[in-house]
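Researcher: Structure for this, please.
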Amino acid sequence: MQHFALTAYSIDESVEYQLLGQSRLGGYSRFGKRIFDILFALLLLPVLVPVILILWGVVRLDGGPGFFGHTRVGQNGKPFKCWKVRSMVVDAESRLQAHLDSNPEAAAEWERDHKLTNDPRINRLGRILRKTSLDELPQIWNVLRGEMSFVGPRPIVTKELPKYGSSVSAYLAQKPGITGLWQISGRNDISYDERVALDVAYLSCRGFFKDLKIILRTGAAVLGRTGR
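Model: Predicted structure, token format:
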């Protein structure tokens, strides 16, 4: 399977992001971050698994799957399935396309941000799940598999890579995160360029206490519903 980055960027650029990632690896980034992810995930599992199973059962009531796995770009351009509790209607893609075809403003918003303020794909329960970030709980599986970290850039699809421009190396040098600077800084209220800048900033300052602070602030944002 080809890595997304190698199909979209030159070999020189792929070498660049690998070297960038290596140059920013301190002791925590090289070993400690992975150890922290595993230990923290194991600590949370007894609490999260029952919640995830309940949400899965409720979502299944409409006849669709309880989980939704979508292919995202991981570290070094490696694709992986990013898992969530399904928050969309069963015919989500056809509804999205119909909405974009009939609404030029929504199409422009989607092209600019790859997200919509009023997304026709989201079901009633999904709006609650997304507002509270409960739909992202299954990503603890991605963390245990080593595909994601608790803290890092927001996982993106391959079509979003060009939006990073010359800063794409900063994204590809890291594992995507369940949370990150993007979430505690406003999430849906910040522009895509600002999100890219946050990913670059995190790469240069990541550390144990920085990750711990982001996780604690994420909890506060979710409880206060400011991490929309």
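Researcher: Any notable elements?
Model: The beta strands are 67-73, 79-85, 149-151, 177-179. The two ends are 34 Å apart (CA to CA).
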